[in-house]
Each structure stands twice: as structure tokens, then as C-alpha cells.
């Protein structure tokens, strides 16, 4: 495996000379794997392993590393300055991906007219839910929804924009921001996608990356930490993070049976002592809200049902423990 990684990133040797350090590259390779999701954090939007996410991550890494003056992962500690620069370069993928969807939907808009966009957005969303390849249809649904809610550009404005590259870029950026706003509003359920909201999204995500690094390199730094959203922010919204102060409260772990209650569904209650099982099934249980019988799942661009986001509530650790007592 080490030989493969050394070969994969061999072009860095020519660019970096004696500054090339395979041990550090392996550490950064581990970090890059977090960006496609793991047990603790969701994948970044549109980054899927079966759609060449890993080659993209590696190619971007090799393009920026020689100019960073260091590495991303410093023995389990995130170099925020270097990580931010890596994400800035990686964020170009967001715009490239949106541009593909944007061009298709603009063509569609020109053919069917604005009055049909709302209906088309609903149909695209329905197709996404039933499709084996939900990624493309979900992108179309989000873009259609953004076109119906963003400020429309008139025919004269579009004609002028063709002669003015700067104005054309402004139109693209406006639609791109609306596309991302639609994602946050529909996925996370916020009414207003403010600067404060986006800054909090960025902080939470980077905090998650740092917690995971600590976990693998030094052990659990906080027993109470968890990523508080079902979805990750867009790459292009993870910015201005180099000055963040990331601290963790160590806390205490759940007791063993509490931990099982936290991770098992009610269908697996036989794995618990009998005296605990009613907590997962009884209507009078103080924590019954964490075991809903009916809940939604979201493929969120994935193809297999087991990959879907399971939309159940996060555990309020303090209140849950208090209620159980």
C-alpha cells in the first residue's frame, strides 16, 4: 500500500525534491479520504467515490502542495492555512459541476419557458427519488428549483451579457449562489442562508475534520462532539477557516448500554438486556423520539439504498441521560 501511494504521488518528487516526504503524504492521503465521508461526517456535495472523487482529490493535492510550504495533516493536527488553500483549489470543482448542470437547464429553460419550470422542478425531484442514478436528477431538480426562485434575467440583459464577459460571470455567480441556497434550504431546512449560517457550516465541517484526525492519531478528544447536520456544506462555502480556534470539551462517554441505545434501532432491541428494551418501544419512554417507526431517507446523489442519509433526529445527550435516570 505504501508503494502504491508513493507511486500515485510520484510527480511530487520532481516538483518538491528533498521536501517530498512519503510519511507526510500518507498522512495527507488519510485526510483526503475523510472528504468523501465516513462514519462521523457526511460526504461533500457531489463528491462520490464511484464518480471519480478520489482522482480529483489527488490531482488537486498534487497541484497545490508544492506551493504550500508544508503539508495538510501535521501528525493529527490540521494545518488550517494549508487546508484552506487546498479547499480553495478544490472548490473549482463546485463551479465546474454546476456549470454542466447550468448549461443543460438554461437550454431547457429556453425551450419550455419560465412558466413550466416549477412543474419541471417537481417532476425532476420525483424522478430523482425513484432513479437508480439519483445524482444527475437531483442536480437537475436543485438547479430547476433555483431557477424558479432566483431573480430572472431578461432577454435584453442576456444579449448584453453576451458582449460583456464580466456581466456574464456575474449572472453565473448569481445563479450559482441561488443553486447552493436551494440546497441548504431544501436539505437543512433553513429559511435564510445568511453569511453567519455559511460561516457556521464551514466551522462545523472543519471542526469535524479535526475531531476525526484527533480520533485516529491521538484518541478521542471529545466524547460529546458530533457533526450536527445530515449534510455537508459546499466546498466553495468552506472558506475563511485559517483563523479558527478549534477546541473540544472532553466530556464522558456513554455507559455501554447507553451506547447501544444510542446506535441500535428498535428492531435490534434483543441485543440489550430486557430491562432496557421498553425504552425503544414504549410510548411512555422518555427517549422514544429517537426510535421513529416512520422516517425519511435521502439518496443525496448515491445509488444504493444503504448509502442513503437516514433522517432521524440527533440525540440530545444531556437531556436523554437525564430523562433515562
Any descriptors?
mainly alpha, 14 helices, globular, 5'-3' RNA exonuclease activity, RNA binding, Xrn1 helical domain-containing protein, Xrn1_helical
What features would you describe in this structure?
One of its GO terms (biological process) is nuclear-transcribed mRNA catabolic process. One of its GO terms (molecular function) is RNA binding. With 325 residues, this protein is mainly α. The protein folds into three domains: 2-93 and 196-237, no CATH class; 113-193, no CATH class; 256-324, no CATH class. The chain has 14 helices and four strands. The strands form two sheets. The protein has a two-stranded antiparallel sheet with strand order 1-2. A two-stranded antiparallel ribbon has the order 3-4. The longest helix has 23 residues, at 165-187. The chain starts with a helix and ends with a helix.
Instruction: Enumerate how many helices there are, as a single number.
Output: 14
Query: Would you identify the regions where 5 or more consecutive residues have pLDDT less than 50?
Result: 125-132
Instruction: Give the overall average pLDDT.
Output: 85
Largest sheet: 2 strands, antiparallel
The tally of domains stands at: 3
Protein name: Xrn1 helical domain-containing protein
Organism: Neolamprologus brichardi
GO molecular function, one term: RNA binding
InterPro entries: 5_3_exoribonuclease, Xrn1_helical
Amino acid at each position: 500500500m505504501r508503494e502504491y501511494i508513493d507511486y500515485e504521488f510520484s510527480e511530487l518528487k520532481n516538483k518538491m525534491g528533498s521536501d517530498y516526504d512519503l510519511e507526510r503524504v500518507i498522512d495527507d492521503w488519510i485526510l483526503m479520504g475523510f472528504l468523501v465521508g465516513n462514519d462521523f461526517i457526511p460526504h461533500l456535495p457531489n463528491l462520490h467515490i464511484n464518480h471519480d472523487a478520489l482522482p480529483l482529490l489527488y490531482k488537486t493535492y498534487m497541484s497545490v502542495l508544492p506551493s504550500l510550504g508544508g503539508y495538510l495533516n501535521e501528525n493529527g493536527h490540521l494545518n488550517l492555512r494549508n487546508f484552506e488553500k487546498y479547499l480553495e483549489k478544490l472548490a473549482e470543482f463546485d463551479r465546474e459541476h454546476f456549470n454542466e448542470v447550468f448549461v443543460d437547464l438554461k437550454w431547457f429553460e429556453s425551450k419550455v419557458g419560465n412558466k413550466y419550470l416549477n412543474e419541471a422542478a417537481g417532476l425532476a425531484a420525483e424522478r430523482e427519488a425513484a432513479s437508480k442514478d439519483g445524482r444527475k436528477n437531483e442536480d437537475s431538480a436543485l438547479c430547476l428549483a433555483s431557477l424558479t426562485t432566483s431573480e430572472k434575467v431578461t432577454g435584453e440583459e442576456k444579449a448584453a451579457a453576451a458582449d460583456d464577459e464580466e456581466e456574464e460571470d456575474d449572472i453565473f455567480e448569481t445563479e450559482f449562489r441561488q443553486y447552493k441556497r436551494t440546497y441548504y434550504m431544501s436539505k437543512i431546512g433553513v429559511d435564510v442562508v445568511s453569511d453567519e449560517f455559511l460561516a457556521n457550516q464551514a466551522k462545523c465541517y472543519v471542526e469535524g475534520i479535526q475531531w476525526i484526525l484527533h480520533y485516529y492519531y491521538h484518541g478521542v478528544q471529545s466524547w460529546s462532539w458530533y457533526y450536527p447536520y445530515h449534510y455537508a456544506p459546499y466546498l466553495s462555502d468552506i472558506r475563511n477557516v485559517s483563523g479558527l480556534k478549534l477546541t473540544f470539551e472532553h466530556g464522558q462517554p456513554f455507559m455501554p448500554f447507553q451506547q447501544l441505545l444510542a446506535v441500535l434501532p428498535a428492531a435490534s432491541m434483543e441485543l440489550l438486556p430486557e430491562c432496557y428494551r421498553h425504552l425503544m418501544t414504549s410510548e411512555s419512554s422518555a427517549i422514544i423520539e429517537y426510535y421513529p417507526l416512520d422516517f425519511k431517507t435521502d439518496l443525496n446523489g448515491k445509488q444504493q439504498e444503504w448509502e442513503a442519509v437516514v433522517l432521524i433526529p440527533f440525540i440530545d445527550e444531556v437531556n436523554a441521560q437525564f430523562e433515562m435516570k
